[in-house]
Write a structure and sequence with these properties.
The protein is an alpha/beta fold. The protein contains 14 helices and 13 strands. The longest helix has 21 residues. The N and C termini lie far apart (44 Å). The model has no long low-confidence stretch (mean pLDDT 96). The structure holds nicotinamide-adenine-dinucleotide (NAD) and glycine.
Length: 352
């Protein structure tokens, strides 16, 4: 098992990464002397892995983005009260980003905050959502609009869980992995280009490597800017358009990581149009996305509606969208001065 530290002063924590490490997670929970533990999972993950944890109350939510609501949070609050969780208790998220975001939001708000532990089981949650403390539920007018920054006490990433993950979900997680290469590490991007086959075949060694490097990059950014005052915005590369795609398609047609891959191409198009990046770099990004089996265009969307949705994004401040644009593979910058016609052209370019 290897560890990556998220340095946040008194709220620092370890991301523990390895194969078959549920035992280590269970030991950590036992050693922490939490008064009670409520393990939140979804129906799919619960059926596969909940029995690996004893001495915990288990609550299973329906799988999928539609569970990331205040309604579902209320069901969890009720279970927490019924299970008599107190301030020294813990909520453990065992599952993908939906479980992690929802359980984290409940942990942040129940009794004004109880201990929280993340055990992510999708690639997307392992490389992104379980690290950094963003928790949220969706509102019918937009994604992740109700939430809190709330750091976990620890994150346990068991790479072996990726063996049961549906292929489509693995590929979706790769969308976020590619993002890390684009925003801060060209060498990592090269490594992804060189290992596409191994990655798609679920090679445990390369998956552990890419999870670790992704977590290192995320941990570094979060340590420098926990509350997204500036630098952390770079983690949203591709997400402004991705959120609009997800909202426009009712959160069901595309997995989050799939929408991010398309959104990155929209952002790359904008970057090239404003002269920030070369065509060659954009082409490299597109080629990798295609080789990883991710889509480059979205269907069933209206450009006008997506354009309106962009203004409900959390990164939009005072009516100005903060765009994360590519400078090259391995570097991005934030700009708010992208003309409407270029944004619309980008949306037309990715819509089918
Ligand atoms: P998800 O949680 O819906 O999981 C995808 C599917 O995989 C579900 O059906 C789940 O039951 C199943 N599954 C999970 N692990 C499995 C396993 N090991 N074996 C078999 N099946 C398994 O989706 P996701 O992609 O993990 O997360 C998406 C969510 O994460 C979105 O709501 C997104 O907004 C959020 N997110 C949050 C952050 C953050 O920083 N908090 C970052 C990125 C994404
Ligand atoms: N997924 C973006 C962030 O954590 O900031």
């Amino acid at each position: 098992m290897t560890k990556v530290r998220v340095e946040l002063g008194a709220n620092s924590y370890d991301i523990c990464i390895g194969e078959n490490i549920f035992g280590a997670a269970a030991d950590f929970l036992a050693a922490s002397n939490f008064t009670k533990i409520l393990l939140v999972t979804d129906e799919n993950v619960g059926a596969l892995y909940a029995d690996k944890f004893s001495g915990v109350d288990v609550v299973k939510i329906p799988a999928g983005e539609r569970s990331k609501t205040l309604h579902c949070a209320e069901i969890l609050y009720t279970r927490a009260i019924e299970s008599k969780l107190d301030r020294k208790s813990a909520i453990v998220a065992l599952g993908g980003g939906v479980v992690g975001d929802l359980a984290g939001f409940v942990a942040a708000t129940y009794l004004r905050g109880v201990n929280f532990v993340q055990i992510p089981t999708t690639l997307l949650a392992q490389v992104d959502s379980s690290v950094g403390g963003k928790t949220a539920v969706n509102h019918q007018l937009g994604k992740n609009l109700i939430g809190a920054f709330y750091q976990p006490r620890a994150v346990f990433i068991d790479i072996a869980t990726l063996k049961t993950l549906p292929e489509r979900e693995l590929k979706a997680g790769l969308g976020e992995v590619v993002k890390y290469g684009v925003i801060s590490d060209e060498k990592f991007f090269n490594c992804l280009e060189e290992n596409v086959d191994k990655i798609l075949n679920g090679d445990a060694e390369i998956l552990a490597q890419i999870v670790r490097r992704s977590c290192e990059i995320k941990a570094e950014v979060v340590s420098l800017d926990e509350k997204e005052i500036g630098l952390r915005r770079i983690l949203n590369f591709g997400h402004t358009i991705a959120h609009a795609i997800e909202e426009e398609t009712g959160y069901e047609k595309y997995c989050h990581g799939e929408a991010v891959a398309i959104g990155m191409l929209g952002a790359a198009f904008i970057s090239e149009k404003i002269g920030a990046v070369s065509h060659a770099a954009v082409e490299r990004l597109e080629n990798l996305i295609v080789r990883l089996g991710l889509q480059t265009h979205c269907e069933g969307v209206s450009v006008d509606k997506m354009y309106s949705a962009l203004f409900r994004d959390k990164k939009t401040v005072g009516g100005k969208i903060n765009w994360v644009v590519m400078k090259k593979i391995g570097a991005v910058e934030v700009t708010s001065g992208v003309p409407e016609n270029i944004v619309r052209e980008a949306l037309e370019n990715i819509a089918r």
